[in-house]
Structures are given as C-alpha cells and as structure tokens.
Amino acid sequence: MTTSLRRRLRRAAYCTGLILLATVSFLFSPAPRTEAEYCGTYLHLTSFAGFTANCDGFVYMEDARHPRHLLEPKEVRQSRPLFILLGTAVGYPCTWLVEALSASGLLPQQVIQHLPAKYQPLLGFYIGYVLLNYVVLLASMLLFAHLYYRLTDGQGNRLLLGAMLVFFASNQVTKAFFWTVHQQMFTFLVPLFCAWLLLEPTRPPLRQGRHVAAWACLTGLLALVYGSFVLVLPCLLYGFWQQNRTRRPAHLLGGCLAVVVLFLMPTLLWIGLLRVQDVTYYNHEAEAYHQLIWLLDAFRRPWPEFTRLVAENGYRFLETLPAVGLVAGLVLGVLGLGRYHQWPVRRQALTVVVGLLGLFAGFFAVLGYYQPRLTFILAPLLLCLVVVLLPPRPPRWLAWALVGVALSWHVWHVVSYGPFS
C-alpha cells in the first residue's frame, strides 16, 4: 500500500469519525414540540432520541423503488432522474439485505413494525439514501481537504484543517437532513466542485477538443442529479476561456457554444425521451416555487411592481444570510489579523473564490425561494476563502482558537431547538 493511499484512507477514516460523532449526537437534540414545525414524520428511537423523516423522502423512495414513475406526467422528481436511479442502485441491495436479516431473525420484526406503515416496505431504500448522504458528505470533506493541501502547497496545518472539517459535519443542514431522504448534502459538494474546476492547482485541462467535450458532457449529467449543478456551466465556460484566451476570437466563441450545447445535451435528451413517451417535462421547483421563472413574470409587470417584487425577494434573501454568519466571521477574523499585509496573497485563488461567492450568492438571490439551508451553500466557499487568506505559517494559537470555535459551534447546534426540515 502506497504512502499516498494510506494518507487518503486515514483522512477518510477521520472524516467518517467526524460525521458519525456529529450526526449521532444530533439524534439527542430537542424534539419538535408540535407537528406544525416540520414537514414529515418524527421517528422516536427512544423517549429522548429521534429524527425527522422529511416529507419529500417518501416520493424519492417510491420513485427509486419504481423508476418508471419518472415517465408519468407531472412526476415531482422528474427533473432529477439520475438521483432517483442512484437511489434505485443502492436501495435494492439494501432491501435484499434487510429481507435476509429479517428472515434470519437478526433483524427483529418488532423493529420494522415500529416504523410508520408506509415506510415499512421502503426501509431498504431509506437506508440506501442515508448511505448516499454519507457518501456525498464524505466526498465533500475529502475534496475540501484536497483543496486545502493544494492551496497550501502541502504544508497546511492539520489541526486547522480538522477544525474546519467540523463545520461540514456539524451544521443546520446535516442536523435536519443527514438521517432523512433528501438532496441537501449536495449543498457542500456543488460549490467545492466548482472551486476544484477553477483553481490552478486542481483545474482539469480544457485546451484539447476531446477534453472539453468529455468534461462538458459528464458535468452536464450532474444537472440531472441536483439542480444547483447548473452553476458548473459558467465555471466551465470561464475555465475554457482562461486556458484558451490567446487563441482567435472565433475559436473561443465556437468552443464556448460547444460547451453550452454539450452541457445541456443530457437534459435535452431526457426531455426528448419524455416527449417520445408523450410526457411533457415537469420541473416541480419551477412550478411550485416559481424558482427563477418569477423573474420572467416580474419583467412583464409595470416598473413600480417590478421594483417592489425584486426588493421583497432581495430582503427575503438577506434574511437567510445569518445561516453563514459565523463562517463569514471567520473570514473577517483572518482579515483582521495585524500582519495580514505582510504575507503573500494567493491572487488567482482569491479571485476564483470571491468570484464563486458572487456567482452563488447572485444565483440564490434571484432563485425566488429562500431558506437558510439553501444559503448555507456559501459556507464551503467562505471556508475556502479562509484558507486562501491564511498566512503561510499560521500561529499555533490560531489553530487552537478555531478548534474551540468549531466545538462550540457543534455543541450549540446539538442543544439548540431545530431546525427539523
């Protein structure tokens, strides 16, 4: 076993330990007082422990159990077919394992019967989706660690990194959604993947046509897993321009058009497949919450109504910013160090991370649906900004101070009331 592989396995084991410690402790957080405070079913493990099974989860599990539901008109999860198929791929093996354990007596029937009736036949799919939550969260933490060491030329402080990883394992998103069936773990992966695409130490080569085509098609598939992956497209376009800007304008324009077409191709093919089945593509988020399309309606209104609507939505977005308040405070704390002007700033990395913060903040500001859990997508980028702004050799007291902040952050989330969905 190579040294590099052993290092990665140790890192994965550490991240797994953090995930388990944080998410298991959330099971003992205060339970909701009324059913009006959450959407779904609160499952009591004991008299003092439990978690919320989100109301969206039942549709995810039923669709994973019967993927043909995706071909039905106005199916709620029709815009995310690959996530449903991932649920199918892990759900059936988990179901077979549950059936085998039940038949052998290792899984008592009383455990299954303790569940609400509609969840009993879906237990394997529930377990499968929770495993997907773990995999996505673990991938996010490992990707952040990879970016951390690449940005610090392999000289990063491990204690600092460990403290920052606590913010991934413990937060309002993992508290409300890790133990349920949902897609919120992608909150961490999407912005970090975009940073990986653009930062000089990690960005993929986009100079040759076959590389451009492969990356555009493969990342286009991600948009069929989780909607926010659409933000990969502007990152690909910027990366292509950055690596080919010395070429002729015609080449740049043609390449950008090719990236757009190839990125959209998986979604267009999926829409085409639905049309073959005489089904009109349905996007539940756009239909139910008017995500993004509210802008089209707003532009048709008289100017006073347009400005009022934009101002209202802007204010609602600003109300969600406290979700990343502490992480933003870490950035300000690093900026406030007296010797900041004395150490070199990684300018390309600073430009990329600040640009991505603007891209993600702008996208979610115009989304039209505002929740703190959505705004928390800025937190991974703010942590990347902390890494970029840190001095090459941060003082040891800084690492221990961040450890104290991270542990206090976790304890506060464990003892605080909510969120539940």
Observed structural traits:
single chain; 421 residues; mainly alpha; 2 domains; 2 strands; 64% helix; membrane; Glycosyltransferase RgtA/B/C/D-like domain-containing protein
Produce a short descriptive summary.
This protein has 421 residues and is mostly helical.
Global structural class: mainly alpha
Our count of domains comes out at: 2
CA radius of gyration is 23 Å
Number of strands: 2
Q: Regions with pLDDT < 50 over 5+ consecutive residues?
A: none
Assembly form of the protein: single chain
- Compute the average pLDDT: 93
Report on this model:
There is one protein chain. The protein is mainly alpha-helical and 421 residues long. It folds into two domains: 3-203 and 396-415, no CATH class; 205-282, no CATH class. It is 64% helix and 3% strand. The chain has 19 helices and two strands. The protein has helices at residues 3-26, 57-65, 81-104, 109-113, 123-151, 158-169, 172-177, 186-198, 209-222, 232-244, 249-276, 284-289, 294-299, 303-319, 325-335, 347-365, 372-375, 379-389, 396-415, and strands spanning 40-46, 49-54. The protein has a two-stranded antiparallel ribbon with strand order 1-2. A hairpin with a 2-residue loop joins strand 1 (40-46) and strand 2. The longest helix has 29 residues, at 123-151. The radius of gyration is 23 Å and the shape is globular. The model has no long low-confidence stretch (mean pLDDT 93).
